[in-house]
């Protein structure tokens, strides 16, 4: 049986947020104030749709956006971690669940030649239209009150694990690697043998550290990381068990 590795993308695989990084393509590398202020909580995908429309209207083209995205730095130790997983692929299934979009993630993984490390990428579908503008859609609809309208990562994870089970694939452990507040919901799905790996100093760690007061207990173990190299150590420990 394999281990399932679940990665968030922004601030986990890459060391920044792809949606805010793209703003450097805008004139003077910033958005107009009205656009910046138009974000409504829970409606990030709609907001990014307006950002992409603005960039398109200002003549920012696909190549320029691709150049910006593929210059994003990977998080420390992440290149080592992804190479480690690639070399031990018989022991790991590996997926991404991200609130970024399919175009950005594709560009970044392909440019760094990490595309084959991941079995599946779950994210908001995006595409360039015939007018050269990037458009993005919600990943799905769901009824989780905790998550943004377009994506509940827990629903995605539960569906993936159920589907795999129907194909006869089950996992010894699920390891969830993430940084953000929207990584908390999927972590509540983890069981005793699983591992939540929040990035040290980021929102998910803070939420998990307030757990005793929280109503919903986290059953899995929690292991912090700052570098992908620390994640390698923990995976080595898990596969030796
Ligand atoms: Mg993140
Ligand atoms: Zn949720």
TrEMBL record:
Gene3D superfamilies from the UniProt entry: HAD superfamily/HAD-like
What protein am I looking at?
Answer: Pyridoxal phosphate phosphatase PHOSPHO2
Cofactor(s) annotated in UniProt: Mg(2+)
Protein biosynthesis is among the record's keywords: no
One matching Pfam family is Put_Phosphatase
Q: Keywords in UniProt for this one? A: Hydrolase, Magnesium, Metal-binding
Native species = Echinops telfairi (Lesser hedgehog tenrec)
UniProt record similarity statement? Belongs to the HAD-like hydrolase superfamily. PHOSPHO family.
PANTHER family found in the cross-reference section: PHOSPHATASE, ORPHAN 1, 2 (PTHR20889), PYRIDOXAL PHOSPHATE PHOSPHATASE PHOSPHO2 (PTHR20889:SF1)
What InterPro entries does UniProt report for this protein, alphabetically?
A: HAD-like_sf (IPR036412), HAD_hydro_PyrdxlP_Pase-like (IPR006384), HAD_sf (IPR023214), Pase_PHOSPHO-typ (IPR016965)
Q: Which domain of life is it from?
A: Eukaryota
Phylogenetic placement of the source organism: Eukaryota, Metazoa, Chordata, Craniata, Vertebrata
Q: Among its keywords, does the record have rRNA processing? A: no
